[in-house]
Amino acid sequence: MCCVLISGCKNTTNTTNDNSKTIATAGNQTLKLNEFTQNFISTGNVNDSNYLAKKQIEDWATEVLFYQEALTKLNTDEVDVEQKVQAYKQQLINYIYQTKLIEANLDTNVTKQEVEEYYANNRTNFILKDNIVKVNYLKIALKSIALDKIKRLLYAKTTKDKDLLKNLCIQNAENFFINDSTWLYLEDIKKEIPKLNTQPNFDLGVGRVVEFSDEYYYYYLKVNDEKIKNGLSPINFERQNIKNFIINNRKTVLIKQYKKQLFDKAVANKTFLKY
């Protein structure tokens, strides 16, 4: 049977009768050649393809037989899934249409003022669940030829020296973070520097510098600022989250308004009648 299948897959001159030929039966259901070839992909190797064809047919039969067994074992309510399928179809189509409406009509531009107003009016939503910090961080191989120069520049004050430090880090550091305005989770920093897991949080206060080496790397960490768990999260840390909240709210309002317009129109046109 499988050899016939593979031959059929390769032959582009099959007649309609050939394609409609029954190649397997399972219970009261049949599998036609054209149904099989729609999903079968030949590997180009006859032995491999024959094996895959045989397995695919057996998998089809297994599922069909399982389905037929289910029909005899389940009660009428359990077997009658048409209503459930129809409800799911309606939900899926509504979701697809809703997505298209949002893509076509949603304003995704969120101003700085909108972010600040949302933050001011929803402060209780922005309580920190973990400690966050602003840091300068560096991890560089001990064998790096730029290590000594980078160490000297870590305490640089001028813009020129800071730019030079960043360029050297880009070229030589395994990992680094030099940004005075961005907040990071302290736990994420600890993942980068495993030795920090032995340090109590209060030892990593503002201004604290941690500098050490292991067998392969030199590590440097300076804490520029910190916010403690259960305190108010700074707006800069929440800015993207706030934008997402605002946009999601706009999505909800947009769809509600559109659905209300449809409903009001149906009432006016008497295409919706309540008995």
Task: Describe the protein in words.
The chain is of the alpha+beta class and 275 residues long. It has 3 domains: 2-76, no CATH class; 81-127 and 234-265, no CATH class; 128-227, Roll (Chitinase A, domain 3). Helices cover 54% and strands 15% of the residues. It contains 11 helices and 7 strands. The protein has helices at residues 2-10, 16-19, 33-39, 46-73, 76-79, 82-105, 112-121, 147-153, 159-172, 186-192, 235-269, and strands spanning 22-26, 29-32, 132-141, 175-178, 184-185, 209-213, 217-227. The strands form 2 sheets. Strands 3, 4, 5, 6 and 7 form a 5-stranded antiparallel β-sheet that branches. A two-stranded antiparallel sheet has the order 1-2. Helix 1 (2-10) packs across helix 4 and helix 7 (112-121) packs across helix 11. It is flat and about 80 Å long. It starts with a helix and ends in a 6-residue tail after the last helix.
Task: Tell me the name of the CATH class of the largest domain.
Answer: Alpha Beta
User: Based on DSSP secondary structure assignment, what is the total number of beta strands?
Assistant: 7
Assembly status: single chain
Q: Secondary-structure element sequence? A: HHEEHHHHHEHHEEHEEH
How much of the polypeptide forms β-strand, as a percent range? 5-15%
Number of domains: 3
Overall average residue pLDDT:
86
Q: Give the helix/strand class.
A: alpha+beta
- Total helical segments: 11
Provide a compact summary of the structure:
The chain has 275 residues and is α+β, with helices and mostly antiparallel strands. It has helices at 2-10, 16-19, 33-39, 46-73, 76-79, 82-105, 112-121, 147-153, 159-172, 186-192, 235-269; strands at residues 22-26, 29-32, 132-141, 175-178, 184-185, 209-213, 217-227.
